[in-house]
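Possible regression after last week's pipeline update?

I re-ran a chain I had predicted before the update to compare outputs. Posting the input and the new output here so someone can diff against the archived version. Not blocking, just want to make sure nothing changed silently.
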Amino acid sequence: MDLLRIENITKRYSGHTALDNVSLSIPEGSIYGLLGPNGAGKTTLLRIINRIIVPDAGRVMLHDKEITANDICHIGYMPEERGLYKKMKLGEQAVFFAKIKGLSHKEATQKAKMWFEKFGIEHWWNKKIGDLSKGMAQKVQFIVTVLHEPKLLIFDEPFSGFDPINANLLKEEILALRDKGATIIFSTHNMSSVEELCDHITLIDKSRNILSGNVDEIRHSYGTNIFELNYRGNEQQLLQTLSGLCSVMTTETSTIGINKAKIHIADDSAVRSVIAAANESVELRSFSEVIPTMNDIFIRAVECNV
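New output (post-update):
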């Protein structure tokens, strides 16, 4: 079931089209990656979902109803340009924003203190943003975003400013929120995060949706029939056996006895024959398809959209 549907969204500014008839569907309980080069229109789309700006055409549907101002209380949004007040104490800010989203002062304070302790920053309660590094401020911004336990969470470049340890902490929290029933959208340039976290993605380029779908299905659809063999045995004997069955792209011998070969099989129906032939000539230890990374797919899709 889809929690959110973007239907034919178009947004134009003077002399520039930010979004051109963009549509996508976000399944409930999923982590959805919004990808694209700088200036592609990702942030514009996130702002439209949050009703910060309105589209020139199209609509945003939440649970099959057009999204309203009242629905925004049930959304957590962390923009790329962070929105904390520089002169306000961190604990006060967390409570303030939670109360805006409908929590009582008591509940907001309890939940804020719980999250500060969870992130090991309880001693920052009376500090101000100006006292913190960018990464530390990011933690507070994340807390403010999730504190009211919204069913829809939207993060714009959530990992920028984080070192690897804190980025991993954030990923774990995002997965935990998903497991508790939240639907999560995030815009990112970090392709490894997409592969680690996302169930589905949309790639926007030049204001249009050029690729959408399940991450695993997309990766397999971009496969190019390239396979890797790991084996024990004589390399020349293997190459002679495979001649005429497939193209050998690279070979690699190892001092520990496990050699590798990367091959291209033009015809899907020939895969079993190649495996059987290889296994007859050498001791085949593994045979696996080389699936392209999301980074490879991102580059190929954008280049094809030129």
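Follow-up from reviewer: compared with the archived run. The two ends are 34 Å apart (CA to CA). Marking as no regression found.
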